[in-house]
Amino acid sequence: MQNNFKFLFIICIAASMAFLSSCGKDDDGPAGSPIVGTWTYNAANLTITVNNQPLTTFLVSTGEYTAAEAAAFEAFIKTTILNETDLSGSITFNADGTYRAVDGSDVETGTYTLTNNDTRLSLTSDGDTQIVEVKELTNNRMVLKFSEEEPVDIDDDGVDENVKFDFEFNFVK
Predict the structure, then answer these.
(1) Cα–Cα distance measured from residue 1 to residue 102, given in angstroms and rounded to the nearest whole number
(2) Chain-wide mean pLDDT for the chain?
(3) What CATH number has the domain bearing residue 57?
């Protein structure tokens, strides 16, 4: 049980990092770029892997969980993280390379650049730059991917596992 709390704590930290980085989306495309405009958060998806295998598979391999228990635990973890990263605001990308993100009473402004054939979005605010992958960008739909990796000794065997969180955030215009 202590392992579960330790793992949940690490996941919550990663979720917080993803929330902060996803709130500050910038854009620096030309006036005709599809990114220019106001985007509203629509949905999110989260994939968790441990040592390059799905979380459920890893949990079953430790011998501490059945497949059903591991699936339920993974669903709980994902729901908890996605609820913590509950984005309900919007991001406005301006043609001049500036952006403004609003989530409730939180407002972030900065600059952005869209590069690599519109597949890489760099957001800069208060001197910090976050880079996210643009999985899809049309005139009315944008999907951004953010990944975070953390070394964590989940099973208390003295060896850190590589835990990777892949977030996909969907926005609509």
Answers:
(1) 38
(2) 84
(3) 2.40.128
